[in-house]
Amino acid sequence: MKRRDCLKGMGAIALFPLAHTPFPQWKVYRKLHLFIAVNREDTVAYDLGQAIAHTLADEIPESRAMVTRARNSLRLASLISTQQLDVALLPRAELTAWQADQSPYDQLQATDLKELFEVEDYVLISRDDFRSEHAAWIKETLKAHL
């Protein structure tokens, strides 16, 4: 009887990792898809992001591009600076605020950003460590189709 109880306990310990949150799967999913992050409060950015994602998904199918929305501008800055997401679409004025020495965006001060594409008053940006060949494909595709 005691051996059976011991085996039950070991089985529960073995199954514990399977019940944990699926962060490893999320990391794989992020690597397989190009997420274009936008501010949830900005409907124009969302519409432009949808158009960009649709164009990239059609022209570069392996990008599996899609739009994702951050709850606010500060969260968007956090997602980019912590390398959780690679690409974001934001208004030019907001990018200027991110690059200036303004307190809500202090976490971005150590993050080098590069501009990939400009549409209307919005800028598609990525971190400087975003693969240069991917950035080039995005630039070329968007220049040709938008």
Question: Overview of this structure, please?
Answer:
The protein has helices at 2-15, 23-32, 43-59, 73-81, 92-99, 132-145, and strands at residues 35-39, 66-70, 87-91, 113-119, 122-127. It is an alpha/beta fold. A 5-stranded mixed sheet has the order 2-1-3-5-4. The mean pLDDT is 81.
Q: Mind sketching the topology for me?
A:
Layout (H helix, E strand, L loop, with lengths): L1 H14 L7 H10 L2 E5 L3 H17 L6 E5 L2 H9 L5 E5 H8 L13 E7 L2 E6 L4 H14 L1
Parallel strand pairs: 1-2, 1-3
Antiparallel strand pairs: 3-5, 4-5
Q: Treating each run of at least 4 consecutive H or I residues as one helix, how many helices?
A: 6
Q: Roughly how many Å is the radius of gyration?
A: 20 Å
Q: How can the largest sheet be summarized? A: 5 strands, mixed
What ranges have pLDDT less than 50 throughout 5 or more consecutive residues? none
Major sheet: order of its strands? Answer: 2-1-3-5-4
**Total strand segments:** 5
The average pLDDT is: 81
